[in-house]
Write a structure and sequence with these properties.
By secondary structure, this protein is mainly alpha-helical. It has 31 helices and six strands. A six-stranded mixed sheet has the order 2-1-3-4-5-6, covered by helices on one side. It is globular.
């Protein structure tokens, strides 16, 4: 044993090790290890202390190595030994090690210890073995909050939100962790309406939301375009003086940007005292969605002047901004600077941005050459960007070639067949177009239906193309007939080019185009809002040419600003014009 004065003072040693373990930095752990290794026979408390320290570090596997040494030294265990070990297993998603520790718990008689069992439930849940987690949970005579939350967390991680909700409803008393687990699970499962509904329930249950639940609720607002609810959460943050951490700051910027309020997003950004690379990236992404390419590049340069180094996600954001606004040369310069100036290797997403940039600008041959010279194997997204460009610029020959490649590598994506069929139809190759549609049906692939949403007074209204399920559909269709007459009086003629194959008969195709989901949502917005109110629409697919044309005219005739977010970007319609300049 070490003979220094420090090593002889067990109290001083314990305090030193505790300081190293509890520090927010892992830098002190090696010093703790050196001191710990100086003992011939560390007691159980010191073993547990070291195991706990490494279980929370960047090297949780060191906890398991320490435990092997503990077993070899025949050191006694206590109830505090296993939770830290199982936390390490959770962090490593180590199922086999979890089962081995489970055996030790049973062997040493700790199978009824609530802390050990709860840790086991959590570890099995995190490693995806929720059946074992549930089995252990069912054996607990009186499960506590941790038991409930652990098993619910397992089902949430597995995406089984229905089972998670059933368990959640059975809880007698739910704490902030219970609510947050469910809300974040819904957001991760892209069930944003359900996430917001549960968030409102949480508020009504008098459980104060924490930073994580607030961040998830804001993310749900961003995805749904639920601006009013997002604003309410922002005012709640200000009112309760909850500390604006970097995560909350980023999701607030993202929420305002995705709800069409770039000025508000910029205001939030300005009020963040310590701006991280994530905050700058969120702002640049916002400018990209809105088609403000110059502003995105300006912020990209400004962040570097402030000493913030861009990361790979920042480059994706600024390259997207260049693509959406036709800044070809600027985008190419930024792309080639990644490796040269920043030592960042471009990923498949960055290559996809350049293909999209070149394709949108009509530089199809250059885009094809770029793909052929890529050091990475092109995926379906890369080829899909080029196929979309071929359709926009009516390059039939290249489009047919790319369509064959895409269907071969991505045979279960409905959009690939639709684009390829439309390429054939543009060239009046009706047999090939019909054959592509037939192949799509044989593969059991369905086209994703168009869906548009509008949030009014805290309620999100959803419309599908041709859908009649909305309770006020008769009123909506009556209003649309009036609107259509006004549109025609102002020179509107339907754009049927993108519907060449839906039906052969022109009249029937025209009937379908008038039932597109965004038209229904805009009509409902005109019925339900006061004159002069901005109408905000969310669309799950790219807005079609006809709906884009109609929305421009509606904005002029009815003197309304209409903000539409489609699958990739924003369109701000005002006085018969769109912010995208018809470049989308």
């Amino acid at each position: 044993m070490l003979k220094t004065g420090l090593m002889q003072d067990s109290y001083a040693i314990t305090k030193f090790l505790s300081f190293c373990i509890s520090s927010t930095s892992s830098d002190f752990l090696p010093y703790a290890q050196i001191v710990f290794d100086g003992f011939d026979r560390p007691d159980t408390f010191l073993w547990n202390l070291m195991i706990r320290g490494f279980s929370c570090s960047d090297e949780p596997e060191r906890s398991l190595l320490l435990y092997q040494r503990m077993l070899c030294s025949s050191a006694p265990h206590n109830a505090y030994t296993f939770p830290s070990l199982l936390k390490a297993c959770s962090n490593l998603s180590a199922f086999e090690e979890t089962t081995q520790i489970h055996a030790q718990i049973t062997k040493l008689g700790y199978e009824n210890d609530v802390y050990a069992v709860n840790s086991l439930i959590n570890s099995y849940a995190v490693t995806g073995n929720f059946k074992l987690a549930h089995l252990l949970f069912d054996r607990i005579p009186e499960p506590d909050d941790v038991s409930w939350n652990s098993v619910i967390k397992g089902y949430v991680k597995a995406g089984k939100m229905d089972i998670a909700l059933t368990l959640f409803r059975k809880m007698a008393e739910k704490n902030a962790i219970s609510w947050t687990t469910m809300i974040s699970g819904y957001v991760q499962a892209d069930m944003n309406k359900e996430a917001l509904q549960l968030f409102h329930e949480m508020q009504n249950s008098d459980v104060e939301p924490d930073n994580v639940s607030l961040a998830n609720a804001l993310s749900a607002c961003a995805q749904l375009g639920a601006l009013e609810q997002g604003k309410w959460i922002h005012s709640y943050l200000n009112k309760t003086r909850i500390r604006m951490d970097s995560v909350l700051g980023c999701v607030l910027i993202d929420m305002y940007a995705k709800c069409g309020e770039m000025e508000e997003a910029l205001e939030v950004f300005k009020n963040i005292k310590k701006k991280s690379v994530q905050a700058w990236t969120a702002l640049i992404s916002g400018y990209a969605y809105h088609g403000h390419g110059r502003e995105a590049i300006s912020k990209f340069m400004e962040m570097q002047k402030m000493g913030i180094k861009p990361n790979v996600i920042t480059f994706t954001a600024v390259l997207t901004a260049c693509s959406y606004t036709g800044l070809v040369e600027e985008g190419k310069l930024i792309f080639y600077s990644m490796e040269r100036d920043y030592n960042l290797k471009p990923t498949i997403e960055h290559y996809g941005c350049i293909v999209d940039l070149l394709g949108r600008a009509g530089l199809l041959d250059e885009a094809k050459r770029f793909i052929q010279e890529m050091p990475l194997k092109p995926n379906a997204v890369i080829w899909g960007a080029l196929l979309k460009a071929c359709r926009i610029h009516k390059n039939i020959e290249l489009g047919e070639e790319i369509g064959e490649i895409l269907i071969a590598i991505d045979p279960y994506h409905g959009g690939r067949y639709v684009h390829k069929a439309n390429i054939h139809a543009m060239d009046k190759k009706w047999d090939k177009a019909a054959e592509t549609r037939r192949l799509m049906k044989e593969q059991g692939v369905a086209k994703v239906p168009g869906c548009s949403t509008i949030s009014l007074e805290g309620t999100t209204h959803e419309f599908l193309a041709g859908d009649r399920s909305h309770p006020e559909i008769e009123k909506i269709q009556s209003k649309w007939r009036i609107m259509r007459r006004k549109l025609e009086e102002n020179g509107y003629v339907p754009e049927l080019e993108e519907m060449l194959l839906d039906l052969v008969d022109d009249d029937e195709r025209e009937a379908i185009v008038h039932q597109h989901s965004e038209k229904l949502a805009i009509t409902y917005g005109l019925i339900k809002t006061k004159p002069g109110t901005i109408i905000r629409i969310m669309k799950n697919l790219r807005v079609c040419k006809d709906c884009h044309k109609v929305t421009k005219l509606i904005s002029k005739i009815y003197k309304r600003d209409i903000v539409m977010r489609d699958r990739t970007r924003f369109h701000h319609f005002r006085d018969g014009k769109c912010s995208c300049g018809d470049y989308w």
